[in-house]
Write a structure and sequence with these properties.
With about 240 residues, this protein is mostly helical. Helices cover about 65% and strands about 0% of the residues. Helix 7 runs antiparallel to helix 10 (about 180-205).
Length: about 240
């Protein structure tokens, strides 16, 4: 692959000259135009580097602290983080506020033994993750907005039709709540599951707790007796 050869010249201020920048752009364009089998060919040097990186990654994952960090590598919004205390600083949340949040739940539900302490702690962590939902929605909207900017670059002049298309695309950024409601339903089910576990333990199974998740199998029972408004409301909760 032929590469454009130009002198790398610096300006008095220490910045690359226009000629040097043009040469680098030309080289980059030629590199991008090369066939993939050339760009990604498995040379001995690349294979040795890959093996070395893999060995380092495996060694790090074998250590307990490395395995815990690996679980947090893909942490984005923390809605379903398994290690909630560890995720708090990673998301720039206040550790003191999280600790106070846990103490409040212990005060409200007064766990009586070690098992109940674990359940109440899990309840506090689950509700903390639920509190992250609106921040996650803001992040989802910001991501969609960046995609909107990328798909509709700046233009000197727009036709009315193109303006309309962009208007609808922008409106769609802020009216897509499907990820929000899907996550909300899942988190509410988790909160209910922990509460049910606590009540089952304290009542010996006598209390049947169900709030967030309606019985799916009963949705269409006696359908004709339901008012339309109630039917719509029940379907929204699914």
């Amino acid at each position: 692959m032929e590469i454009c050869k130009r002198a790398y010249v610096l300006t008095p201020a220490g910045r690359a000259s226009a000629r040097a920048r043009a040469a680098r752009r030309a080289n980059l364009e030629k590199a991008r135009a090369a066939a993939k089998e050339i760009i990604y060919r498995p040379t001995p040097r690349r294979q040795a580097a890959s093996r070395a990186n893999l060995e380092k990654a495996l060694a790090a994952r074998r250590r307990p602290e490395g395995n815990a960090r690996a679980r947090l590598n893909a942490l984005k919004h923390g809605l379903f983080a398994r290690l909630v205390p560890e995720s708090v600083p990673r998301l720039d949340e206040d550790p003191d506020e999280f600790a106070a949040h846990q103490r409040r739940f212990a005060q409200i539900f007064a766990p009586e033994d070690e098992m109940e302490q674990k359940v109440v702690r899990r309840l506090a962590e689950t509700t903390w993750r639920r509190l992250r939902l609106h921040r996650a929605q803001a992040r989802w909207e910001a991501d969609r907005l960046r995609e909107f900017f990328a798909d509709a670059p700046a233009a000197a002049r727009l036709t009315p039709e193109e303006t309309e298309r962009r208007a609808y695309a922008l409106a769609d950024v802020f009216t897509d709540f499907q990820p929000f409601f899907t996550a909300a339903s899942r988190l509410e089910a988790q909160v209910e599951r922990v509460l049910r576990q606590l009540l089952h333990a304290r009542s010996g199974g006598a209390i049947k707790f169900k709030v967030f998740a309606p019985r799916r199998e009963s949705l269409f029972d006696d359908l004709e007796e339901w008012p339309v408004e109630e039917l719509i409301e029940r379907m929204r909760k699914l």
